[in-house]
Amino acid sequence: MAKISFRVNGKNQTVDAEPDMPLLYALRNDLRLNGPKFGCGLAQCGACTVIMDGNAIRSCVTPMSAVQNKSVTTLEGLGSTKKMHKIQQAFVDEQAAQCGYCINGMIMTAKAFLDRNPRPSEGEVRRALAGNLCRCGTHPRIIDAVMRAARES
Ligand code: FES
Ligand code: FES
User: Fold this and answer.
1) What's the whole-model pTM score?
2) Which ligand is nearest to the CA of 45?
3) Is the CB of 133 within 6 Å of ligand 1?
4) Ligand 2 in reach of 102 Cβ (< 6 A)
């Protein structure tokens, strides 16, 4: 066990963890941040995506040893039901969720992408989200939501 300190959604946090424990477990089990989801656990679906130092990463395969002194943003750090981030609002406006399980990853991947490319083409959005899987097949609305967020920002 080691004490691992990092910033989460703007707050300093310290977690006792084995260095190889996935960041996702610390977020969900220790810090009770349940925005990021456990999907595959193998970096293949994107449900667990968070942003670390500006990059969308898969927290299910990110060991705690890689998190020391880093800054992590989860879905909870973007906005809340009372005050939604523009991307969250766009997902609501486009009714982009069905079961909702993939939506954390879609929004967090879109956030990191739009921060770098605020006026993307639809093709660029499709490519940015190509690695995020949605079992409900609601990709067309998800793409529309990201395009709306870009337009309305
Ligand atoms: S749970 Fe991390 S990529 Fe699927
Ligand atoms: S909305 Fe169900 S997995 Fe995407």
Assistant:
1) 0.97
2) 1
3) no
4) yes
The CA 143 to ligand 2 mean position distance, Å, reads: 13
- Indicate the average pLDDT of the chain: 97
CA–CA distance, 32 with 28 (Å, rounded to integer): 5
| Ligand 1 geometric centre to CA of 132 (Å) | 9
Whether 25 lines ligand 1, by a CB cut-off of 6 Å, is no
pLDDT tens string 13-29: 999 999 999 999 999 99
Instruction: Give the closest ligand to the alpha carbon of residue 132.
Output: 1
For CA atoms 58, 63, 67, 72, the dihedral sign is positive
Q: Which ligand 2 atom sits closest to the C-alpha of 96?
A: 1
